[in-house]
Amino acid sequence: MELNHDATVEEILEKILDTIGPVQIADKISLIAKAKAEHVTENWQDKALAREWIKAARRFDTATESIKKATLFDHIYKTP
After folding, report:
1. Cα–Cα distance between 67 and 22 in angstroms, integer?
2. Do the Cβ atoms of 5 and 13 come closer than 8 Å?
3. Tally of structural domains, the chain
4. Any residues with CB less than 8 A from the CB of 13 and at least 6 apart, and which?
């Protein structure tokens, strides 16, 4: 996937969406949020902020499962 350096965030996200699909995007964002929670806990000892990142990760986990149920995407994107 090649990204234009002058592209807007929306254009970049659309390109990623077209490449890997909505399930993988939601799943990857969840993984990133969990990593952020771990980083904040280990490096900043900010448990409140870490909890917020965990909450965000859970929301993306829920979104991932909801999107998986939308069989429309099954034939377009391979989901694990």
Report:
1. 7
2. no
3. 1
4. 25
Query: Stretch 13-36: mean pLDDT, rounded?
Result: 95
pTM over the 0.85 mark: no
Is residue 6 a part of any domain in this protein? no
One-character DSSP codes across the chain: ----TT--HHHHHHHHHHHHHHHHHHHHHHHHHHHHHHHHHHHH--HHHHHHHHHHHHHHHHHHHHHHH-GGGTTTS---
Neighbours of 79 (CB within 10 A): 15
The confidence score (pLDDT) of residue 5 equals 75
- State which residues form the domain around 46: 21-73
Are the C-beta atoms of residues 78 and 20 closer than 8 Å to each other? no
Residue 7 lies inside a defined structural domain of this protein: no
